[in-house]
Amino acid sequence: MKYLWLLFGVFFQFSLSAQEEGYKVDLHLDNAQSDKVFLAYFYGDNQYVADTAFKTSENLFQFSGSEKLGKGVYMFVLPPENTFFQILIGDDQHFKITADANNITPTISIEGSEDNNVFYDYLKYLDSARKVKTDLQEKIQHAETDTEKEKLEEDIVDLDRGVLHLQDEIMEKHPESLSKMMIASSREPQIPKYDDEDEKVRQKKSYRYYYNHFFDNLDLKNEAILRTPFIHKKVMTFFDQYTPQAPDSLNKSIDLFMGKLEEGTDVYRYFLVKLLNKYANPKMVGQDAVYVHIAQNYYGKGKAPWIDEDKLTEILDNAERFSYTLIGKPAPNIELYDIDAKKKFKILDVEARYTVLIFWSYACSHCEEVMPTLPEIAEKIDDESIKIVNVCTKADDPCGEFLDENNIRHVGINSLPVSSYGRLYDVRSTPKIFIINESGKIASKGIGFSQIPEVIELLKKEDLSSVN
Question: Which sign, positive or negative, has the C-alpha torsion 94, 97, 101, 106?
C-alpha cells in the first residue's frame, strides 16, 4: 500500500507537470461578432496566425497546443472587422482572459499571468492619463491668463512624469518580464545637453551620442524581441534615417549593430538575412557595396551556418560579380572591337572626361525601345568631352543593321566585345549602363537611359565642388 501511494504521488506530480506543458489560453469574450478568433503573432515585419479557436458555450474561445509558443507579443484578431488586441506570451502560457469585445482595455481581466496583468494595468493607466492630457490641452487653448496657462502646462509635465515613474517602477519590479522589454524599447536615449558648446558642435555631439546609444534600451539578446510590432521598424530606422547612406557608413553601422547580437540566435539570423536582402536590390546607386560587405564578411566567413551550400555559393558569386564595378573602384579594362574603325581598343584607352559604357543587344526588347533615344541623349549632354561606347553583346551583323535602321550609328563608338565582360561587368541582362571617369574609375552605374544626362551633370558639379 505504501508503494502504491508513492507511485500515485509520482504519477500525480507527473500529471501536474504534463498539464503545464504546451499552452492553453481560455478567452471569454462578450459581444464577439464572430464565432471564431485568431491568435496571431508578430515576427519582424510580418504577422502570422498561430492558432484559431471557435466559440463554445458562454462565449468561450479555447486556444491550446502541445508545444509552448515562442515568447513575444501576440494578438487576438476578431473577425469580421479584424480588430485586435495584444497579449504577452512569456513563461506563463496557461491563463484565462475575460473581456468585452467592444471595450477591451477597460474591461479585461486576466487570471494566471502576472506579466499580462502588469501590462494591462500599465495600458489602463496610459489610457486614463491620455484622456486627462487631452482635457488639459483643451483647457490651455481656452486659458484666459498666462498664469492659468502655465499651471495647466505644469500639470501636463507632472502627468508625463507620472508615466515615467510608473515605467521605472515596472522595470525595477519586473526586470525579466516582457512588459519591461516593451516599455524599455519605447524610451529614447537621453542625450546630454552640451550647454557649453556652440550650436554646430552641440548638434554633432548630440547626433553622435544618439547614434552610439540608439540600441541601449532594446534587449537584443532576448529572442522574444523578434515577436514584437516594433523591432524591425526600429532597426531599419537606424540604417535609413540615422546613418549616412554612403556604403562605408552603412557598413560601419551594420558591423556596430550585428556586434550587439549573439551569433547563432534567431535574432542574429533574422537581421543578417534581412540586411542582405535589403541591399541586394538597393534604392540608391552604389549601395550594392553594402551587399558585398555583408556577403563577404558574414556569409563568407561562416557566420550564416544555416544556409545551404548552393545558396551560399550563389550569394558569394553575386558579391564577387558586384565587387568588380563598385563605385570608386577601377573599371575592368575589357578589350573591345570598334566595328566602324575596324580596330581593337581597351575601354580605359578612351580619352574622355566621362565615358558612358552601354551594354545592349538587338534581341533585347527593352534595348529596342531605349537605344533609339541615344541621339536625343547625346544632344542633351552636348559635351564633346563625354564619350558614349555602345557594346553589342551579340557579335554578328544584326548589331550594325539595328544601328543603321534606328539612325544611331553616329552616336558614340559602336563596338563588339573581344575579351570576357559578362562577369566583370555583371551583364546578366541588357541594357546595362556604367559611367567611367577620366581616372578610369566607376563613377555611376545602374541608371536608366533617361537619367544619363542628369547624372553626367551631377558628376560635373561634384568635380567642381571638390576643386573648390
Answer: negative
User: Looking at residues 106-127, what average pLDDT do you find?
Assistant: 96
d(CA 419, CA 39): 59
pTM of the model: 0.87
AA letter at 57 = S
Mean pLDDT of 143-170: 93
Amino acid in position 431: P
Q: Which residue has the cell 464577439?
A: 32
By DSSP bridging, strand 23-30 and strand 94-100 are parallel
Paired residues of 443 in beta bridges: none
Task: Identify the pLDDT of residue 57.
Answer: 79
Strand partners, 46: 43
Neighbouring C-alpha atoms within 13 Å toward the C-beta of 96 = 5
What kind and span of H or E run contains 444?
strand 442-445
Task: Give the three cell numbers for residue 200.
Answer: 554646430
Place of cell 487631452: 134
State the Cα–Cα distance between residues 226 and 412, nearest whole angstrom: 54
User: Residue 446 corresponds to which cell in the numbers above?
Assistant: 545602374
Alpha carbon separation from 269 to 190, 215, 296, 304, 312 (Å, rounded):
30, 18, 16, 7, 14
